[in-house]
Amino acid sequence: MTTAPELRGPRVLLSPVSPDHHARLRAIHLHPDVVQWWQNPDDDWPAAPEAGTTRYSIFYDDHLIGFIQWYEAEDNPDFRHAGLDLFLDPDFHSKGFGRESIRVLCAHLIDDLAFHRLVIDPEVDNSVAIACYRSVGFKDVGVMREYSRDRHGKWKDGLLMDLLAREFIR
What is the CATH number of the domain that holds 109? Predict the structure, then answer.
């Protein structure tokens, strides 16, 4: 198995998740402003690997401020595309770190791994995340009704968004 490369932006470093990141990532994930969109993490998260998923810790200076991951959503060459997800420590919201992290990862997926299409699927009520994704070039595809169940058992609608390589805003 190949180790994922570190990816750098002007302010952020995306570093493959390592055991010394686990406690901080878990603490961020459990923050009320994050867990409302991500549900409760499994007991072994993020220590347990997730097959087919490449996971990164997001650093600003020496501070671990978030998490971003990607996965190959379809490997058939005629339909091949990747999906991604992320969360940030709420202390770093609205400062451009999410947008920069997405741009850095999208550039890697498009330029280095030759994906022509990327997808992301926030809850329709997550207007801050949706605005961030749109600012990078993701477009609304449509609402996926009752797409996921939240941590309280309520079904939530998701917004499928995609980004074509040729539309990527650098």
Answer: 3.40.630.30
